[in-house]
Amino acid sequence: MKLKTLSSLRLLLALLPGAFMLIGMPACAEEANEERLLELERHVQEMQEQREQSGSPNIHLGGYGEMHYNVVEGPAKDMADLHRFVLYLGYDFAEWARLHSEVEIEHAFIEEGNGELSIEQAFIELDGSEQLNGRIGRVLVPLGIINQRHEPTTFNGVERPLVDNVIIPTTWMADGAGLHGGFGDKVKYQAYLTNSLDGTNFSALEGIRGGRMKERPGLSQLAISGRVDFFPFADKELDTPRNLRLGAAFFGGGVGNANKGAANPIDASVNMSAVDAEYSVGKFDLRGVWALGQIDGALAIGNNVAEKIMGWYLEGAIHVLPDGWKQGKLRNADAVIFVRYDKADTQHKMPAGVTPNLAGDRTETTFGISFYPTGNLVLKADYQIKDNAGATDPANQFNLGAGWAF
To answer: Residues 302, 160: contact at Cβ < 8 Å?
Structure first.
């Protein structure tokens, strides 16, 4: 609007000197017109600044989402799923204090037994220094890669990795407070004191996933968690550009908690450790995760819950879109072919006298392609070969998906 206004003013005032000469007005009117033009420009600029100030520039909007189409071999039903739709709202109280929040709707429809509406994140961030900053509210437990970076444009595959479902139960949120910061560009850290888990909802095949507490979590037993990330090449100039990140994380807390601030009588605890890495060089990407959870007191929990759960995955990818194709509408496009091997065992070590459910020891091999028309929009296709140690193998699966983030 501002540009159109100024262009119109300039055109009008440019015609005025000639008009003035035709009716006998002095040529010095041109100089007066130029002064008037400058004054009008200043006035329009002031109006623009006032509009921006009154338009709440401290508010930040965003979001992400993904749609899936799953074709399962055998008698199982094929399914289309608007899997998740997430809205982000942020607000800057000051340069050093801000709010971050995410509200998620799963499966497009909410009714008893269908869909879900939840607040995945809602925390206040307080900047102190490069080394020391604070967070208060609902945060994401910092284990693995995808739990904290789970937008569909940040990972390959239509579905999240198996390990990030049944070992590290992505998305895993918790309420509390913590610190984060770094030491230069090479070392970053996070540390939190939050609510822990509800052990009554642990299971043989889903591990600790059901123990996440999404609504008014009990604080009878708290948890500590944290991670450290190391970037070896952050301060180096290399002939071949490359990025390497090495991370290690932990979680520890009791499981005697229940909803609405209540407690449960289970005397048990969970300690989980994880390491992960991401490496990119040229057109190649590698990433991997290993996680081990120890459940002390698993026998008291029952439900065929294991004393130890374990999982890992390794993924390799190559960017294949020719540079010559990156022009016009595809100037920011990319295409990635990948393969990932997942192993997850939620029955890794059982309490004495408890027989494992062999279906809990499973693998997935996923290979496919991710096409990015732009950096924040992705179209995906993959095929998953599934296996377990039980008597009946799970069905293989073909997936199509679309995801976005902004």
So the answer is: no
- Which residues, at least 6 apart from 365, have a Cβ–Cβ distance to it below 8 Å? 339, 340, 341, 342, 384, 385
Peptide bond into 171 cis (omega under 30): yes
C-alpha distance across the termini of the chain, in Å: 25
Tens of pLDDT, residues 374-387: 999 999 999 999 99
Find how far residue 393's CA is from the centre of its chain: 31
Q: What is the span of the domain harbouring residue 295? A: 56-405
Element (H, E) at 405: strand 397-405
Query: Is the domain of 276 the same as that of 135?
Result: yes
Q: Residue 377 contacts by C-beta under 8 Å, 6 or more apart in sequence?
A: 153, 402, 403, 404
Question: Same domain for 165 and 265?
Answer: yes
* Cβ-contact 69, 80 below 8 angstroms: yes
- How far apart (Å, rounded) are the C-alpha atoms in residues 260 and 258? 7
Shared-domain flag, residues 264 and 157: yes
Alpha carbon distance 326, 316 (integer Å): 23
Q: Determine contact, residues 318/336, Cβ cutoff 8 Å.
A: yes
The closest alpha carbon to 187, from 148, 227, 149, 147, belongs to 227
Which tokens go with 187?
């070392």
Q: What is the pLDDT of residues 32-71, one digit of tens each?
A: 556 666 766 676 576 556 545 556 789 999 999 999 999 9
How many Cα atoms occupy the beta-carbon half-sphere of 349 within 13 Å? 9
Do residue 132 and residue 153 come from a single domain? yes
